[in-house]
Amino acid sequence: MSGIYIHIPFCKQACSYCDFYFVTRTSEREHFVERLVEDIKSYRDSRFARERVETIYFGGGTPSLLEPAQLEQIMKALYDVFDIGEQEITLEMNPDDVSAPFLADLKSLGISRASMGVQSFEPDLLEFMHRAHSSEEALQCLELLSASDFNSFTVDLIYGNPGQSVEQLERDVKKLLEFNPPHISAYSLTIEPKTRLGKQVELGRIAPPEDDKVAKHFDIINQLFSSQGIERYEVSNYSIPGKEAIHNSNYWEHENYLGLGPGAHSFWWDDKAERWENEKDLRKYLRDEDHPEKEVLSLKQLAEERLMMGLRTKKGVRVAELSEQYDYELSDRQLNYLENREQEGKVNVDERIILTDEGIKIADAIILDLVTLH
């Protein structure tokens, strides 16, 4: 099983927290689509086209800035070159781009899952994040989505914002739950150094939220979602049963995926495991001057990655999988560390290593400790 990720780099404006590659010169969209179609066609009869593609993900940037006719060109090229299984085809969109006709066009193109970047309904938080949409547009887009033929969609929320109160968070969550979303991605605000927000923190103009406050926000989200039957299956991802994101779940389990577009990542493991990243440069991509070098990954690197990704999920990692697939045996120091964390109620260890709800709160620290102790 494999997936395809397509990076659409265009945005109306820069969100304060975002460190994904994007450009605001949207006049290049038509040229970009032409080049992307050429890029897709270059994989015809290659080893990447021999494996059935089960998932496609349009990310960004803002994929909803493309016209339906442009998306149709891309979809046609994908179907011409790859064996598409249509298990899940997702397109990220912003609320201010959404209309009923737009959603109907996407559905007719075979897009089966919408990913809506709401982040918050609070006007002051949307302004702080420098989002392009308003609270009213966020509500309207969810109404349109609920009334559409999309029975699979996800909504993004961000918590742990500087100055965000518990009351604001509860209002955000309760408003969202009114629309019965089958899937929610709830992210704790991350302050990246090269973003607008990162620069403000560096200059001392904004203080990042304290860890205790973020942990409290995490608990509130888990409680409110769970009360509606929406359960956490990864640190930042929640769904009703059967609506988990297939594309992202495959990432975490080392399934192959091909990344297209500037800044996109690829991972492919057949006789050897390789990873590469397209250069974050739209102009070079348009001129076909981006030829990334492939990194060959060792089994030890792959095993450590599997631990890093798998322990963030509710399923955890099978101990036998580490030895069978990665030739990786847990050391005495690692086993002792896991035993201590189990006594603290942060980890469960049996056939699988699984972080508890308390362990998930400090997942990054536990995973780093565990990998370092090998």
From TrEMBL:
<dbReference type="GO" id="GO:0051539">
    <property type="term" value="F:4 iron, 4 sulfur cluster binding"/>
</dbReference>
<dbReference type="GO" id="GO:0046872">
    <property type="term" value="F:metal ion binding"/>
</dbReference>
<comment type="similarity">
    <text>Belongs to the anaerobic coproporphyrinogen-III oxidase family. HemW subfamily.</text>
</comment>
<keyword id="KW-0479">Metal-binding</keyword>
<dbReference type="InterPro" id="IPR013785">
    <property type="entry name" value="Aldolase_TIM"/>
</dbReference>
<keyword id="KW-0408">Iron</keyword>
<feature type="domain" description="Radical SAM core">
    <location>
        <begin position="1"/>
        <end position="231"/>
    </location>
</feature>
<protein>
    <recommendedName>
        <fullName>Heme chaperone HemW</fullName>
    </recommendedName>
</protein>
<dbReference type="InterPro" id="IPR006638">
    <property type="entry name" value="Elp3/MiaA/NifB-like_rSAM"/>
</dbReference>
<dbReference type="InterPro" id="IPR010723">
    <property type="entry name" value="HemN_C"/>
</dbReference>
<dbReference type="InterPro" id="IPR004559">
    <property type="entry name" value="HemW-like"/>
</dbReference>
<keyword id="KW-0411">Iron-sulfur</keyword>
<comment type="function">
    <text>Probably acts as a heme chaperone, transferring heme to an unknown acceptor. Binds one molecule of heme per monomer, possibly covalently. Binds 1 [4Fe-4S] cluster. The cluster is coordinated with 3 cysteines and an exchangeable S-adenosyl-L-methionine.</text>
</comment>
<dbReference type="InterPro" id="IPR007197">
    <property type="entry name" value="rSAM"/>
</dbReference>
<keyword id="KW-0349">Heme</keyword>
<keyword id="KW-0949">S-adenosyl-L-methionine</keyword>
<keyword id="KW-0963">Cytoplasm</keyword>
<keyword id="KW-0143">Chaperone</keyword>
<dbReference type="GO" id="GO:0006779">
    <property type="term" value="P:porphyrin-containing compound biosynthetic process"/>
</dbReference>
<dbReference type="Pfam" id="PF06969">
    <property type="entry name" value="HemN_C"/>
</dbReference>
<keyword id="KW-0004">4Fe-4S</keyword>
<dbReference type="GO" id="GO:0005737">
    <property type="term" value="C:cytoplasm"/>
</dbReference>
<dbReference type="InterPro" id="IPR058240">
    <property type="entry name" value="rSAM_sf"/>
</dbReference>
<dbReference type="InterPro" id="IPR034505">
    <property type="entry name" value="Coproporphyrinogen-III_oxidase"/>
</dbReference>
<dbReference type="Pfam" id="PF04055">
    <property type="entry name" value="Radical_SAM"/>
</dbReference>
<dbReference type="GO" id="GO:0004109">
    <property type="term" value="F:coproporphyrinogen oxidase activity"/>
</dbReference>
